[in-house]
Design brief:
This protein is mainly alpha-helical. The protein contains 4 helices and no strands. The radius of gyration is 21 Å and the shape is extended. The two termini are 37 Å apart. The mean pLDDT is 87.
């Protein structure tokens, strides 16, 4: 049975590809701006070490997340679908970024209240658990892809 649609599938495909291309360009521009801002903040820091260095690492990890998102969008063009592994990698990077930021805050914050210290420790633990679960999910996804995809 032929189903009639309002728009031909070719028009929808072109519109979808155009939006993905626009999204990719936008993510790349944001990554460039973020890199520039990160370097500028590092150079303007009163103390480059350790505060400036920690801020720079945080900024660089954000740029890496953006580039992974860009890679995912580009992968959409080549494979025709989003890949689970790409999103898991982005999640791992984001959770590691959180762990590093909280760890640095705990290390440098000698005047942190007990309440804030407890909250930061809880956040650190949650981020660590999330990281482990995402790495486990990534391993399972890669294993299942190798096991069930004869092309790999």
């Amino acid at each position: 049975m032929n189903q009639r649609t309002v728009l031909p599938s070719r028009v929808v495909d072109i519109a979808e590809d155009s939006m993905h291309a626009l999204l990719g360009v936008g993510v790349f521009v944001v990554a460039l701006i973020s890199t520039y801002q990160g370097v500028a903040r590092l150079l303007q820091s009163e103390r480059i070490y350790p505060e400036g260095a920690i801020r720079a690492i945080n900024d660089l990890l954000f740029v890496i997340i953006l580039l992974e998102i860009l890679r995912t969008v580009i992968g959409r063009f080549t494979s025709g679908s989003y890949q689970l592994e790409s999103f898991l990698v982005i999640g791992v990077i984001a959770s590691v970024r959180s762990i590093l930021t909280v760890g640095a805050t705990l290390t440098l914050g000698s005047d942190i209240s007990q309440e804030k210290f407890s909250r930061l420790l809880f956040e650190l633990g949650v981020s660590a658990v999330i990281s482990l679960l995402l790495v486990l999910a990534l391993a399972v996804a890669k294993f299942s892809r190798r096991r069930f995809d004869p092309a790999d």
